[in-house]
Design brief:
This protein is an all-alpha fold. 78% of the residues lie in helices and 0% in strands.
């Protein structure tokens, strides 16, 4: 039985070997064709490179005038690309007011000059809560003017703060840092204005609430400005600097509280709920 199986396996192996032998010339031909194709490709690439080199040798060098024009064209395209990049607006509140024409005057210049002469917006508009919109609308351009004026103070105050004399890890640097914290906190007031400016709120309510908001912003900006102008009075005196720091810390916390109250009042007005 074993001999029969071995005989069959032997015959099968012979057939396989015979098939491999028969296919060998064909495989060899394929390899030859692949080799010839590779040779042709290398030859083709070499011819392309030689052609490119030859072509470049025929192209004349650019003149000085042509080089100059090319450089100018590169600069022009770079400038165009730069102009296309989005930029963050310096005064987003003022841009919004102008875009939506919120500052369009509804009365003569004398009327608005009289309003401008009153610096305390909170005092000027504190009794406007229940005045009809038809009467209140003419006052809103003055309110917008006040917010725009405070927004423009931000860069001035940043410049004043940056120019304060201070050394690394000094008392003056600590004072500088707490003042910048106050500035950052006060600027949150503009975010409150932005959040509620498009909500449908009674104009009388808006005048009262926005007058409180702009008064808060202005009074804290005044603190920063005065402190910067009188920065040398305390100088590096640690005790005085500590007292100043505690005072400004209180102002920061107070701003947080007042901003929260104003935000809630705006929402209540929008929802037609009572607020004081």
């Amino acid at each position: 039985m074993s001999e029969v199986v071995n005989s069959e396996n032997c015959d099968e192996n012979k057939e396989n070997i015979k098939g491999d032998v028969d296919r060998a010339p064909e495989a060899e031909k394929k390899n030859d064709r692949a080799f010839d194709s590779g040779q042709n490709l290398v030859s083709h690439l070499m011819n392309e490179q030689e052609y490119s080199v030859a072509l470049q040798s025929l192209i004349p060098e650019p003149t000085e005038e042509e080089r100059k024009k090319f450089a100018e064209e590169v600069k022009r395209k770079a400038a165009e690309t730069k102009d296309e990049l989005p930029t963050f607006p310096d005064y987003p509140l003022a841009d919004f007011v102008k875009e939506h024409k919120l500052d369009e005057k509804l009365e003569n210049d004398e009327f608005y000059a009289d309003l401008e002469s009153e610096e305390d917006a909170q005092k000027l508009y504190k009794d406007m809560k229940n005045i009809p919109d038809v009467v209140c609308k003419k006052y809103y351009p003055d309110m917008c003017r006040r917010f725009i004026a405070q927004e423009r103070r931000i860069k001035e105050l940043e410049k004043m703060l940056w120019e304060l004399p201070r050394e690394d890890r000094s008392v003056q640097e600590d004072r500088f840092e707490i003042l910048t914290e106050l500035l950052d906190k006060v600027c949150k007031g503009f975010e409150i204005w932005d959040e509620h400016v498009e909500r449908k709120i009674s104009m009388g309510h808006r005048l009262v609430l926005e007058s409180r908001l702009v008064h808060l912003i202005k009074s804290r900006f005044d603190i920063i400005e005065t402190t910067c102008k009188e920065f040398d009075k305390i100088g590096g005196n640690q005790d005085e600097a500590d007292r100043e720091r505690e005072w400004i810390r209180y102002e920061i916390r107070h701003c947080d509280l007042l901003f929260t109250e104003l935000h809630e009042a705006f929402l209540k007005s929008y929802l037609e709920m009572e607020w004081t």
